[in-house]
Write a structure and sequence with these properties.
Shape of chain B: globular
Largest sheet of chain B: 6 strands, mixed
Oligomer: heterodimer
Number of strands of chain B: 11
Number of helices of chain B: 0
Shape of chain A: globular
Low-confidence stretches of chain A: none
Number of strands of chain A: 11
Radius of gyration of chain A: 13 Å
Low-confidence stretches of chain B: none
Structural class of chain A: mainly beta
Distance between the termini of chain A: 35 Å
Order of helices and strands of chain B: EEEEEEEEEEE
Largest sheet of chain A: 7 strands, mixed
Order of helices and strands of chain A: EEEEEEEEEEE
Distance between the termini of chain B: 41 Å
Largest interface: A-B, 24 and 25 residues
Structural class of chain B: mainly beta
Chain lengths: 113, 112
């Protein structure tokens, strides 16, 4: 089955700890994205990558890092510098064409212990 | 700054009625428009896309686009309790980074 997978479904972070959220897609999509969703806040873009080995900061990149070593994978690391990481994290991907939009993975809910 | 506005709701309609969800956008050069449905605790799911003025129908869903007035709407006919969700409007420019701008969503409640 083609699709976008995210793991884990739930993640608990201790103070001062870095954690990595996984995002994999087998749709042969060019671009991948990370969003954060807080209640009542809508979707906020953290990072995006349009091609392998290249990525750009979104609106709220501070405290996060990413890599894009393979077309299929776009992991997100939430660093200890992110002071309020509790949120629902969504990964999305798309083909780089005018008419295509993003398709989302199932999400990872990050909680701070 | 590109903006996409939606009434947060909740919009409450009885089962079987037509639910009308509206979205306005600020950037006149926007080319592509999408509606996503998001159930509580789940990720957004694409349900409709529209690119030209007029109506586009898919089952019980109809998307309406009016570029002159800069609004896009979603009509849900014969609303069912299973339609209860938050509906996100997304607007995308042609070219560039193809990053859509999302509205904050409208919460729809369909009561039996």
């Amino acid at each position: 089955d083609g699709g976008i997978t995210q793991s884990p479904k739930y993640l608990f972070r201790k103070e001062g700890q870095n954690v990595t959220l996984s995002c994999e897609q087998n749709l042969n999509h060019d671009a991948m994205y990370w969003y954060r969703q807080d209640p009542g806040q809508g979707l906020r873009l953290i990072y995006y990558s349009q091609i392998v080995n290249d990525f750009q900061k979104g609106d709220i990149a501070e405290g996060y890092s990413v890599s894009r070593e393979k077309k299929e994978s776009f992991p997100l690391t939430v660093t200890s510098a992110q002071k309020n990481p509790t949120a629902f994290y969504l990964c999305a991907s798309r083909m780089n064409t005018n008419v295509e939009t993003q398709y989302f993975g199932p999400g990872t809910r990050l909680l701070v212990l | 700054q590109k903006e996409v506005e939606q009434n947060s709701g909740p919009l409450s309609v009885p089962e079987g009625a037509i639910a009308s969800l509206n979205c306005t956008y600020s950037d006149r050069v926007s080319q592509s428009f999408f509606w996503y449905r998001q159930y509580s605790g789940k990720s957004p799911e694409l349900i409709m896309s529209i690119y030209s003025n007029g109506d586009k129908e898919d089952g019980r869903f109809t998307a309406q686009l009016n570029k002159a007035s800069q609004y896009v709407s979603l009509l849900i006919r014969d609303s069912q309790p299973s339609d209860s969700a938050t509906y996100l409007c997304a607007v995308q420019l042609s070219g560039g980074s193809y990053i859509p701008t999302f509205g904050r969503g409208t919460s729809l409640i369909v009561h039996p």
